[in-house]
Amino acid sequence: xxxxxxxxxxxxxxxxxxxxxxxxxxxxxxxxxxxxxxxxxxxxxxxxxxxxxxxxxxxxxxxxxxxxxxxxxxxxxxxxxxxxxxxxxxxxxxxxxxxxxxxxxxxxxxxxxxxxxxxxxxxxxxxxxxxxxxxxxxxxxxxxxxxxxxxxxxxxxxxxxxxxxxxxxxxxxxxxxxxxxxxxxxxxxxxxxxxxxxxxxxx
Length: 203
Fold this sequence. Notes:
By secondary structure, the protein is α+β, with helices and mostly antiparallel strands. It has helices at about 1-25, 35-40, 175; strands at about 45-50, 55-60, 65, 70-75, 90-95, 100-105, 105-110, 115-120, 135-140, 150, 155-160, 165-170, 180-185, 195. It has a 4-stranded antiparallel β-sheet, with no helix packed on it. It has a 4-stranded antiparallel β-sheet with strand order 5-6-7-8, with no helix packed on it. The protein has a 4-stranded antiparallel β-sheet with strand order 9-10-11-12, with no helix packed on it. The radius of gyration is 23 Å and the shape is globular.
């Protein structure tokens, strides 16, 4: 009888300690309210670079950089050279060289850390030489060769050589069925890339 009581006591203590440990895990989470300026618009994308800066892309309020204490905003300004090309941010991506790429409804931008500004990357030539209409960039990822694979709204997949900044279209009959509209993109550990067309079908 005594032996059974000891067993029950051990089981009870184990369950009690496990409960405390489970509760302590939740206590480690910290929640902070972002600045009012960013909360006015929906947040579409978040990424952290190797300098521990968190980049927040919004649906109409531009891009924000968070260092753990302060926010710095980057908005489109037609009178300012080097501003981000749109306030409607769809995608943010940090590549293997810690470069920040920003996809917007007006195309693709590369952040210049030394100058703290942005360069618009010309990807419209994949449609036709001299084509000037913007190509909306919905998602970005990097392949095994360090090229950027860019999902667009209406123009399918685009591959960008990050060394030459030359863009080429990835042609596929399967993508044609979805009118070239790529909503999301991901890569597994094997380097295989998965696409989600705007119709929410997996390829």
